C-alpha cells in the first residue's frame, strides 16, 4: 500500500515535472539569457556584447546592466512605428482569419461524422509542406508574371498586371492563409462539443436562427474564438518570413526590424531588447484574454 | 370553421407521417388533443412518440399530413412561431446564462419591457419554488432544480400548450414520484394543455387524463388510463399496461358481449368483448393478475383451471402468486390478504384451482 502510494507520488511528480522542466529549460532560461543580453552593450568580438557583470574594485562583481536599449526603443519612432504597425497587421489579420474560419469550423462541426475527419484532414493538409516553401509559393502565384495575373490577362480582364505582391495585401493574404488552421481547429473543438438541443431550446423560446446564433452559439464558442485569435495574433505579430517574402519595402514589421538589428547591424543587445518588448506585447493580451474567458466552473 | 372556440381541439394531428431514411418514425397518425388535457404519448423507444412531439413543437417537418394548434394550421411554421413551449428531456438550459436569464430568454425574444420581464421571471421562479436560485448558473443546480428551472423557462411565456419530453427521466426515483404530483397540480392550476412523452406506463397512468399508446410509428389506442388498462385493443397493449395473463385459442361462439374461446388443452374459456369478434378467428383471453383467484375446490366451473402454486410472496398489501397450469403455462395472480384467506391460504407447491370471472376477462384478437 505504502510502496504503491510512494510510486504514485513519484509518477505524479514525473508527470508534472517533465513539462515543468521543459518549460524551465527551453522557455524560461532562454528568455532570461535574452533579457540579460538586452541589458548590455554591443562590441566587436565573441560574444558580440559586453558582459553583464565585471570585476570591480571590491570583492563582489559589479553589475553593468543598463536600460539604455529600452529607452532607445521607446524614443526612436522607427521602433515604435514598427511595433504599432505589427500590432495593427496582426490584429486585422487575426480578425479576417476569424471571419473566414468560423463558418468553416461551423460547417465541419455540423456535417455528419463520416465527412468530419476528411474535412479536418483538408484543413491540416498544408502542414505537410514546409511553411517557408508554402509562403514562397505565393510569390509565384502573386507576382506580375504569376498565375493570377497571367490568368486575368489571358481572360482579358486586365491589360496591366495587378500589384498583388510586395505590399500589405500580400502580407495579409500570407498570414490569413498560413494561420487559418490555427483558427479553425479551436473553434471547431468548441462547436463540436456544443449541445445542439440548446439551439432547439432557443428556437422554442421564440428565437429565429440568427438570434439563436448570437445569443447561444456565439457566446458558447467564445473560448474557441479567443484561443484562435491568440494562436493567430501571437505568431503574426513577430512574423518575419511573410513580410520578408510577400511584403514590400514599406511593410514595417517588428520581426524584420529585429532581424536587421541582429544579422545586419550585429547589435545583439538591441535585438534582445526588441525581443523582450515583443514578448511582453504578446503575453499581455494572452493573459488578459485567458482570464476573461476562464470557464465559470473554474472561477466558482 | 364556425365551431365555437371551446370545442376546438388544442392540437389536431391529421394523417401525419415522417420517415427517417428507411425508418417510418411516424406512420399516418391522427389525434385530437382537447384543451386543458394532460395528454400522454406513451410507447417503447422507437415507437415514434418523440418524433411526433418534435413535429408538434416544429423541430421536425412531417412528410405528409397536417398539424393544427387551436385551429390554426402550423404544419409549415418554424418552432419560434408556434404558441407552444417545450421542456426538454436534458433540460437544455443555456450553460452560459444564470437561471433568471434562462427564464427571461423567451420574454426577451418577444421584446417585452424590462420591468415586465423582471416581474414575470420572478413570478415563474416563485411558482416553481425557485425564488432564491435565480442567480445560479445551471451547473450549480441539482437535478430537481434543473428540472424546475427548465419548467419555469417554458412556462414563463404562458404558452397555450406545454410539451414535455420525458420530463422525469433524468430524476432519481424518489424525486420522480414527487415531481409527478407537482406536474399534475401545476397543470390544474394553470389550466393549460400538457402533452407529455414517456416510455413509463406507470408514469403515464399516474399523470395523464388521456393516453395515446404508440408502436412502430402508429397509434394503437387512445383513451383514459382506465380504458387502456381494462380494454386493451391488442396483446401488445395489454402487456404494455401491467401484467397480462394470455390464454391463446380460437373463438367458437359470440353472444353479444359474451365470447367463448376454445383453448386447446385448457378447454373453453368465457370472456367478454366490446365487439368486432367473429367465430373462428384466433384470439387470446386476457386476465389481469388481480382478477385471478385461487381456491382449493376442484376445477369444474366456468374459467376454472387446475394448477399448482409455484411460488408465493407477501408484498404488504397483497400476495403475488405464480401458478403453473397443467400444460406448463405460467399465470400471475395477485390476491388481497382477504382473498388469500378465502382461498384457504395455500402454500407454494400445493395443488390449487385458479379462476377468473368472464366479466373481467377480455378477448383480444390482435
CATH class of one domain in chain A: Mainly Alpha
Give the total of beta strands of chain A: 2
CA gyration radius of chain A, whole angstroms: 25 Å
The tally of beta strands of chain B, per DSSP, is: 20
Supply the number of helical segments of chain A: 14
Structural class, judged by helices and strands of chain A? Answer: mainly alpha
CATH topology of the largest domain in chain B: Rossmann fold
Q: Mean pLDDT across all residues of chain A, rounded?
A: 88
- What ranges of chain B have pLDDT less than 50 throughout 5 or more consecutive residues? none
Q: Which spans of chain A of ≥5 residues are poorly predicted at pLDDT below 50?
A: none
Summarize the structure.
By secondary structure, chain A is an all-alpha fold. Chain A is 73% helix and 2% strand. The model of chain A has no long low-confidence stretch (mean pLDDT 88).
Offer a few descriptive terms.
heterodimer, A: 300 residues, mainly alpha, MetI-like fold, two-stranded antiparallel ribbon, 2 strands, 73% helix, globular, B: 366 residues, alpha+beta, Rossmann fold, OB fold (Dihydrolipoamide Acetyltransferase, E2P), 2 domains, six-stranded mixed β-sheet, five-stranded antiparallel β-sheet, 25% helix, 34% strand
Question: Could you characterize what this model shows?
Answer:
- The complex is a heterodimer of chains A (300) and B (366).
- Chain A contains 14 helices and two strands, in the order H-E-E-H-H-H-H-H-H-H-H-H-H-H-H-H.
- Chain A has 300 residues and is mainly α.
- Chain A has a domain of 191 residues: MetI-like (MetI-like fold, Orthogonal Bundle), CATH 1.10.3720.10.
- In chain A, helix 7 packs antiparallel against helix 10.
- Chain A is globular, with a radius of gyration of 25 Å.
- The two termini of chain A are 35 Å apart.
- Chain B has two domains: 226 residues, Rossmann fold (3-Layer(aba) Sandwich); 122 residues, OB fold (Dihydrolipoamide Acetyltransferase, E2P) (Beta Barrel).
- In chain B, helix 2 crosses helix 3, helix 2 packs parallel to helix 4 and helix 3 crosses helix 4.
- Chain B is elongated, with a radius of gyration of 25 Å.
- The longest helix of chain B has 18 residues.
- With 366 residues, chain B is α+β, with helices and mostly antiparallel strands.
- The mean pLDDT of chain B is 85.
- Classes of the chains: A mainly alpha (300), B alpha+beta (366).
- The interface between A and B is medium-sized, with 20 and 26 residues.
Amino acid at each position: 500500500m505504502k510502496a504503491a502510494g510512494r510510486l504514485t507520488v513519484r509518477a505524479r511528480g514525473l508527470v508534472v515535472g517533465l513539462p515543468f522542466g521543459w518549460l524551465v529549460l527551453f522557455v524560461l532560461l532562454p528568455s532570461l539569457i535574452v533579457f540579460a543580453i538586452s541589458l548590455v552593450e554591443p562590441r566587436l568580438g565573441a560574444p558580440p556584447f559586453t558582459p553583464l557583470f565585471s570585476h570591480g574594485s571590491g570583492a563582489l562583481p559589479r553589475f553593468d546592466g543598463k536600460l539604455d536599449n529600452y529607452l532607445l526603443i521607446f524614443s526612436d519612432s522607427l521602433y515604435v512605428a514598427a511595433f504599432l504597425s505589427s500590432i495593427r497587421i496582426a490584429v486585422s489579420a487575426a480578425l479576417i482569419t476569424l471571419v473566414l474560419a468560423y463558418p468553416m469550423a461551423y460547417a465541419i462541426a455540423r456535417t455528419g461524422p463520416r465527412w468530419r475527419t476528411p474535412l479536418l484532414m483538408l484543413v491540416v493538409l498544408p502542414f505537410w509542406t514546409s511553411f517557408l516553401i508554402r509562403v514562397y509559393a505565393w510569390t509565384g502565384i502573386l507576382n506580375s508574371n504569376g498565375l493570377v495575373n497571367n490568368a486575368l490577362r489571358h481572360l482579358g480582364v486586365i491589360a496591366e498586371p495587378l500589384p498583388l505582391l510586395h505590399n500589405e495585401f500580400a502580407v495579409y493574404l500570407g498570414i490569413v492563409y498560413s494561420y487559418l488552421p490555427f483558427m479553425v481547429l479551436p473553434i471547431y473543438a468548441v462547436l463540436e462539443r456544443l449541445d445542439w438541443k440548446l439551439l432547439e431550446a432557443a428556437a422554442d423560446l421564440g428565437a429565429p436562427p440568427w438570434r439563436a446564433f448570437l445569443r447561444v452559439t456565439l457566446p458558447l464558442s467564445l473560448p474557441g474564438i479567443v484561443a484562435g485569435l491568440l494562436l493567430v495574433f501571437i505568431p503574426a505579430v513577430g512574423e518575419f518570413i511573410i513580410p520578408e517574402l510577400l511584403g514590400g519595402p514599406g511593410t514595417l514589421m517588428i520581426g524584420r526590424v529585429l532581424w536587421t538589428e541582429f544579422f545586419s547591424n550585429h547589435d545583439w543587445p538591441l535585438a534582445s531588447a526588441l525581443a523582450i518588448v515583443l514578448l511582453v506585447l504578446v503575453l499581455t493580451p494572452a493573459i488578459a484574454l485567458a482570464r476573461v474567458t476562464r470557464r465559470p466552473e473554474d472561477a466558482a | 370553421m364556425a365551431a365555437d372556440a371551446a370545442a376546438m381541439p388544442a392540437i389536431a394531428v391529421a394523417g401525419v407521417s415522417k420517415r427517417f431514411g428507411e425508418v417510418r418514425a411516424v406512420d399516418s397518425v391522427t389525434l385530437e388533443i382537447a384543451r386543458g388535457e394532460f395528454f400522454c404519448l406513451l410507447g417503447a423507444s422507437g415507437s415514434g412518440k418523440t418524433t411526433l412531439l418534435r413535429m408538434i413543437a416544429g423541430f421536425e417537418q412531417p412528410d405528409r399530413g397536417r398539424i393544427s394548434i387551436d385551429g390554426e394550421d402550423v404544419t409549415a411554421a418554424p418552432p419560434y412561431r408556434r404558441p407552444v413551449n417545450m421542456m426538454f428531456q436534458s433540460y437544455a438550459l443555456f450553460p452560459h446564462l444564470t437561471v433568471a436569464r434562462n427564464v427571461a430568454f423567451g420574454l426577451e425574444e418577444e421584446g417585452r419591457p424590462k420591468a415586465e420581464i423582471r416581474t414575470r421571471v420572478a413570478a415563474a421562479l416563485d411558482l416553481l419554488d425557485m425564488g432564491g436560485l435565480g442567480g445560479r448558473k445551471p451547473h450549480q443546480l441539482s437535478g430537481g432544480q434543473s428540472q424546475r428551472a427548465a419548467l419555469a423557462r417554458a412556462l414563463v411565456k404562458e404558452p397555450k400548450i406545454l410539451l414535455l419530453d420525458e420530463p422525469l427521466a433524468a430524476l432519481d426515483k424518489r424525486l420522480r414520484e414527487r415531481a409527478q404530483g407537482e406536474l399534475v397540480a401545476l397543470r390544474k392550476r394553470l389550466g393549460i394543455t400538457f402533452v407529455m412523452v414517456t416510455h413509463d406506463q406507470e408514469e403515464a397512468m399516474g399523470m395523464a387524463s388521456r393516453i395515446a399508446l404508440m408502436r412502430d410509428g402508429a397509434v394503437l389506442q387512445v383513451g383514459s388510463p382506465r380504458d387502456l388498462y381494462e380494454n386493451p385493443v391488442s396483446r401488445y397493449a395489454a402487456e404494455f399496461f401491467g401484467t397480462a395473463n394470455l390464454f391463446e385459442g380460437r373463438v367458437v361462439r359470440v353472444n353479444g358481449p359474451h365470447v367463448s374461446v376454445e383453448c386447446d388443452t385448457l378447454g373453453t374459456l368465457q370472456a367478454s368483448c366490446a365487439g368486432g369478434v367473429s367465430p373462428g378467428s384466433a384470439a387470446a383471453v386476457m386476465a389481469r393478475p388481480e382478477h385471478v383467484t385461487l381456491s382449493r375446490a376442484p376445477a369444474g366451473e366456468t374459467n376454472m383451471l387446475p394448477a399448482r402454486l409455484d411460488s408465493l410472496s407477501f408484498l404488504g398489501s397483497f400476495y403475488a402468486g405464480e401458478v403453473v397450469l397443467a400444460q406448463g403455462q405460467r399465470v400471475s395472480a395477485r390476491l388481497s390478504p382477504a382473498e388469500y384467506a378465502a382461498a384457504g391460504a395455500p402454500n407454494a407447491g400445493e395443488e390449487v384451482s385458479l379462476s377468473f370471472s368472464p366479466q373481467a376477462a377480455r378477448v383480444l384478437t390482435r
